[in-house]
Amino acid sequence: QTCALPIFMALATWWRGDPVPSLSPLPGFRVEASRDKHMIAGITRLAPDEVDRRMHAGHQPYLAFVEQAPVGYGWMATQEASIGELGLQFALPATERYLWDFATLADWQGYGIYPRLLQHILMQQSSTVERVWIIHAPENSPSGAGMTKAGLLPIGQLSFRSDGGVGLAPFESRERAQAGAALLGIPLI
Hints:
Strand order of the largest sheet: 2-3-4-7-8-1-9-10
Number of helices: 5
Radius of gyration: 16 Å
Structural class: alpha+beta
Distance between the termini: 9 Å
């Protein structure tokens, strides 16, 4: 038996049929699943060839706007994903998605852009996707709060084990933690 070393990331999920909390309207807020790589590059500050590479690998960019102003973005993996900080790479079943690389532009932080963007993606995917997964670093409490506001349930914490591998320490829902560990190809600890 191995013991867990310090916690590294929290894993959260949304499963089809889970409740989605009501968020107050934000006038002029809208989300686009964009294919305009130059607009995406400008908002995300990625090189156009990196945007192209991500899109070619099955990652869908979402852009959030208030009126015409870009206010945030995020990516949804549809085929495979990785958690570079943990050295994990995993394939996604056809009915699962992984959300990653989200940011709210500095002038718009504090307006609830992140949970609204997440919730838009959940609602858009709710008829075809069974499960959506996302992680956040524990020190990034605004990210964790935004996920919870959107309706994503924290299910466990990813940490390094004493043998150097990664494991998932479950919270309350063992079924969801087991599904998350199976997706990532890691053991429960």
